[in-house]
Amino acid sequence: MSLRNWGRNGWIQPHKTSKEEISDLLGLAERDLKDCHTKGLSNDWRLNIAYNAALQVATAALAASGYRASREAHHYRVIQSLAFTLQAEKDWVIRLDGFRKKRNISDYERSGLVSDQEVDEMMELAQDLKDQVLEYLRRSHPNLVE
Predict the structure, then answer these.
(1) What is the model's pLDDT at position 1?
(2) Which residues is 13 bridged to in the sheet?
(3) This model's pTM is above 0.90
(4) In which element (H, E) is residue 14 found?
(5) C-alpha 97: how far from its chain's center?
(6) pLDDT of residue 36
(7) Where are the alpha helices (DSSP H) in the chain?
């Protein structure tokens, strides 16, 4: 399987990105990485914010690779695409996808399920992903980053 195959399946679509779009996505992630440390927020919300940071940088990697996720299963596709864009290990992608599922439950079904440890892990994962994506962009798409 490859991003090209995903495109044939309609899971992703060709997309021409720009330096501005990548900068905006990274800016959103930076904001969220800062905001998820805000005292007084519920763990559910802090996890959601950290997860969004990870989603934005994964979206940047996919955009730099010439694609955007289709609306159907959007978050799932963006996360799974890391196996192609960053050559992320399967276990790492599975871990991030687990947080996607946890976030969905805490957003749409039940509150109070997220632990301090899970928030810390998601924040660390999001920061690590941001660092990896920046390295990927500098190495593979230097024209898209400063």
Answers:
(1) 77
(2) 68
(3) yes
(4) strand 12-14
(5) 10
(6) 95
(7) 3-9, 19-35, 43-64, 74-80, 82-85, 90-108, 116-140
- The closest alpha carbon to 121, from 99, 91, 101, belongs to 99
- Residue 81 in contact with residue 58, Cβ under 8 Å? yes
Q: How many CB atoms lie within 10 A of CB 120?
A: 14
Query: pLDDT digits over 2-49, tens only?
Result: 899 999 899 999 999 999 999 999 999 999 999 999 999 999 999 999
Q: Cα separation of 7 and 14, whole Å?
A: 7
Structure tokens at 25: 């996505």
Question: Which helix (H) or strand (E) is 67 found in, with range?
Answer: strand 67-69
Q: What is the pLDDT of residue 42?
A: 94
Report the C-alpha gap between 42 and 116 in whole angstroms: 10
- Could you tell me which of 38, 56, 42 has the C-alpha nearest to residue 112? 42
What is the predicted pLDDT for the residue at 107?
A: 75
Q: Which residue has the tokens 């679509």?
A: 13
Can you tell me which residue has the tokens 């898209």?
Answer: 144
Cα separation, 68 vs 71, in Å, equals 9
